[in-house]
Amino acid sequence: MGKYLIRRILTAVFTIYVIITVSFFMVRFMPGDPLQHLVGQEEYYYLLDTDPEELESIAEKYGLNDPLGVQYVRYLKSVVTLDFGIAYSNKKPVVENVFSCIHWTVLLSIPTWILGGLLGGVLGVLAGWRPGKRLDCVLTPIALFLNTVPSNCIGVLALALFAYKLRWVPIGGMTSGIGTGWVRTLDILKHMALPLSILVLFRCSGDFMLMKSSVSQVRHADYTTTAASKGLSDRKILFRHVMRNAMLPYMTSMCMQMGGLLSGSMMIETIFGWKGMGQLFYNAVSSRDFPTAQFCFLISAFCVVMANLLSDILVGVIDPRVTVK
Amino acid sequence: MKRALCLLLSAVLLLGLFAGCGKQTTPETTAAAGTETTAAAETETTGEAPKKHVKNLVIGTTTANTTFNLYGQTDIFGRINYVNFCRANWIYEDENGDLQPFFFTSFEISEDGKVLDFTWPTTAVWSDGEKVTWDDIDFTFRFLKDTAKSSSFIHLVSVEPTGDDSGRITFSEPDVYGWLSGSATMQGLLPKHVWEKFEGTDDYKNYTEPDAAVGCGPYKLVSYDVDAQVSYYEAIPENNYHGEITVDSVTIKTYADQTAIMMALNAGEIDCYYAYSTPIDATLIDLISDSAVDPGESIYAGEDQITFGMTRPAGSDYQFRLAVTKAMDWNLLTDAIGGGYGEVPRAGIIPPSCTGYLDGLPQFAQDVDEANRILDEAGYKDVNNDGIREFPDGSEMKILIVPQYSKKMDLRNRIAEVLIDNLKAVGVNAYVDQEIIVSSEVWESNIQAGNYDIAIGYTTAGMARHTSAFRYYVYEPKPGTERSASWLWGTYTDEEFNSTVWRMLNASSREEYVSCIQWLQQEAADTLFGCALSWTSCFYPYRTDKYEGWYNRPSWGVVNDELWYSLTSK
């Protein structure tokens, strides 16, 4: 187990280093002059006409004229010290921008992860244990539908119906900026109701299908038949034998979903004006704000690698055979 | 199991409450929040009926509501200050493009265009309660010249008081009109007591302390909530530069996108929309479902345009250029660009909402037969009977179309498709180089070197205001500068044309500007070195049920310099 752990941790560290390096070169070799993106196309040409020295000083300030090697070393240093410089889009420190968004993403993603995971898991077990029964017949088509329709499509429709037509919830945003304390908390809950519901529905449907499929596979396994022949009740067979064995893919999936907790749901955040990490990343890419995009990408990649590592460890604990291989 | 579930659900709820309560702090109150303004109407005893003030105007935008810097141009604070909001700009431009007094209560340009005499309001106050003094005026010009290094003040010689409420600005060159019309409408007074801490090396544009928002415009920033993307403003009655301020307070709210803006307008959450140079997309206008919402339609000052490669075999031939304009499906182009809202342009390139528009030039119209006849007569014939015309010397003719690399690439690619189809219909083989449309460097090197037969570009409303679309056709660099370090996309080498564009940009009076821009329109009509593709409408919607006195300024919308003094409650 020890060797297995060390091997996994080293792989994770190496993967992170590769990601950091790839992200550096990927951004540098993207089409487009970063200086033009930095000041905007119209402003760039205006300055070229009226004040070329100002353009030169901006390039100097952001180190755009330095050789690639110098930029790479500076970049590695900045990753270690979490100093990603100033965002092109609003001229504020990138880290400040990211930290002002991250808690809003967590506010949506953790409840989604827990509620969606629990609901999907439990309903999936029940549907998989009794295939063809009413619960399965009702939930499976709904889950399939949700799995095949893009979340942004449902998001826009839900926004138009519940926020615009029925006026049950506000039209986007995270808060109306009214009041403090409980008033503000309730206002935030009101704003998050719709995006959270949609995210939970989508997460739930994915986990439902996965769990249903896992349970369906193990319910006819030899040990299940043996347990039944010993006279154990359905409940005991399900929770003691079937669920435990069906849990492995579900656990892996839940761990992998943890990797997305900080990166947010780009589409849903954008549609609902939720100023989280997803929208920050989306805006950074749209406006070619390289420092912000890079930091968002690294956070996301780091979380995925860590989630992968956690998943490997947990699977190793649940099924020690994996560590021997 | 049940207990575990209950515990987990409670944890989720607590997390939600914790995150919500984490931002329970009252909206960050800035130094600008000093006194409170009463909502009561403040009318002078002139015998006129008192104006019914607007208590709180709610403006929706898609621009971020995060940075509040009087000198900055980012975010909605920087952008709404273009229309004299928290900043008092020196002057403003009215609907006819005429320069009107604002902070300068009056101004006069000397005959040689080098001296500006002005008066200023001694009653004006800063939003933190300090009085505006001559020192602030003197400081601002020194700041702009020495710290911000504004190109408008390269030839500034002196700024001196000539009386208690008057002053004189002297340049060594006739730069006064160029500065007034080019940037003085979007540039205003800075408080010395806040900005004197900055020297040349300081990054004053990124200054974010609360006093960065202190201004002497008709409004002051009271508070803002970055999480809610809302900011709140109150009127400063003393700063009534344009008359009685009739809108007592303003709330600016940022939405995720224009669709959300349209929903908010229909729902009555906001009263109007504002975003600098970003009207509501024409395809969203059909979302208006409430009769109280006016689409706020006006003619846009910017436009999409084409430039002919005048140094290449096809583009250098007037007959070819004329045939192209006859082959183009103008109605389809207008639909593609303006979503059906707009009109087929005339030959002078710039639309009627631009200063110095020359009326009476011919309007384009598709005439495929005429295009074929012109090409035949000019010698562009299909000599090898493959359905494609050749150059008059019999060599292969392939027309390179280069769409401008930009955020709106998809629209310009669509325009290129229409042009390719239109030219194909008259036997001209046109194409787009795939490498050019995926790389800004490749596009730029081609456009700078004049490697195109037809270039598709665009002019924003901001550029159209003074610089105009003609700047995109220039071939010769600005007199006294080097070609290698210049932004030059045009290929029309005519000396008079080039010198006229630069003379227009450095005009020392409105008369000179208008005379130059009208000559350029006539030249465009006569030689067809380029043409507009469509004159589109733009939309800045607003609600008409609660307030009256809206004035929809073409290309800017209802949120303009005059709104704060004209809007009243019904």
CATH topology of the largest domain in chain B: Dipeptide-binding Protein, domain 3
* CATH level-four homologous superfamily name of the largest domain in chain A: MetI-like
- Give the mean pLDDT of chain B: 88
Distance between the termini of chain B: 62 Å
The number of helices of chain A is: 15
Total DSSP E strands of chain A: 0
CATH superfamily of the largest domain in chain B: Dipeptide-binding Protein, Domain 3
Low-confidence stretches of chain B: 15-45
Specify the helix fraction band of chain B. Answer: 25-40%
Number of continuous helical runs of chain B: 16
Low-confidence stretches of chain A: none
Distance between the termini of chain A: 11 Å
The major sheet of chain A is characterized as:
none
Helix content of chain A: over 70%
Largest sheet features of chain B: 7 strands, mixed
Tell me the fraction of residues in β-strands of chain B, as a range: 15-25%
| Form type of chain B | globular
Alpha-beta classification of chain B: alpha+beta
Fold and architecture overview:
The complex is a heterodimer of chains A (325) and B (570). Chain A has 325 residues and is an all-alpha fold. Chain A folds into two domains: 2-80; 94-323, MetI-like fold (Orthogonal Bundle), CATH 1.10.3720. Chain A contains 15 helices and no strands. Chain A has helices spanning 2-28, 34-39, 41-50, 52-61, 68-80, 94-129, 134-148, 151-165, 181-218, 222-229, 234-258, 266-271, 277-286, 290-318, 321-324. With 570 residues, chain B is α+β, with helices and mostly antiparallel strands. Chain B has three domains: 30-85 and 217-296 and 540-569, Periplasmic binding protein-like II (D-Maltodextrin-Binding Protein, domain 2); 91-193, Alpha-Beta Complex (Dipeptide-binding Protein, domain 1), CATH 3.90.76.10; 303-537, Dipeptide-binding Protein, domain 3 (Roll), CATH 3.10.105. In chain B, strands 14, 15, 16, 17, 18, 19 and 20 form a seven-stranded mixed β-sheet that branches. In chain B, strands 1-9-10-11-2-12 form a six-stranded mixed β-sheet. A four-stranded antiparallel β-sheet of chain B has the order 5-6-8-7, covered by helices on one side. In chain B, α7 (318-327) packs antiparallel against α9 (368-377). At the A-B interface, α3, α4, α6, α8 and α9 of A face α1, α6 and α12 of B.
